[in-house]
């Protein structure tokens, strides 16, 4: 094998491995407890009212463009899908909730939470990287009321920051023009290591 062919083969293998890792890698911070206590208490209210079989459809949208701009670049969809795919309360999550929630909540509610997954949730979305506008749904989630309620805060944080970064990068590209190389160099000033990696990813988008 020639040196060039060997390098191309190695590059292809690296790219395949990287893409496979990216599809399956899940940020350990993004899990069901990355939410507001309000969402858990809402879930309890629904459960207490016998609404476990109710179905709901939620739209995720924004009201104004960032930076006083005229458009937004939608991003964060991949992380939302990974979150739905892995949604499950662990035993330690349940133990934490038993201490965080008020006394007197029935054990049956915690047992119900421990069995929850997002397998019955359907997510509809525009394509990641698309230009989006205020009050037009970016994501629509349909499924059991309690579960889609529990998804709300996490989906918002995954989409809001990602779309902000992607929109900011697009504005830089428009100003710089098509033939200027732009380098993302924000790790040292980002909000922690995950903020830095996320900023790089969504700037690229």
UniProtKB/TrEMBL annotation:
UniProt catalytic activity: 5-phospho-alpha-D-ribose 1-diphosphate + nicotinate + ATP + H2O = nicotinate beta-D-ribonucleotide + ADP + phosphate + diphosphate
Keyword Transcription: no
Gene Ontology molecular function terms on file: nicotinate phosphoribosyltransferase activity
Annotated ranges, domain Nicotinate phosphoribosyltransferase N-terminal: 33-160
Entry keywords, A to Z: Ligase, Phosphoprotein, Pyridine nucleotide biosynthesis
GO cellular component, one term: cytosol
EC number: 6.3.4.21
Family statement drawn from the similarity comment of this UniProt entry: Belongs to the NAPRTase family.
Protein name per Swiss-Prot or TrEMBL: nicotinate phosphoribosyltransferase
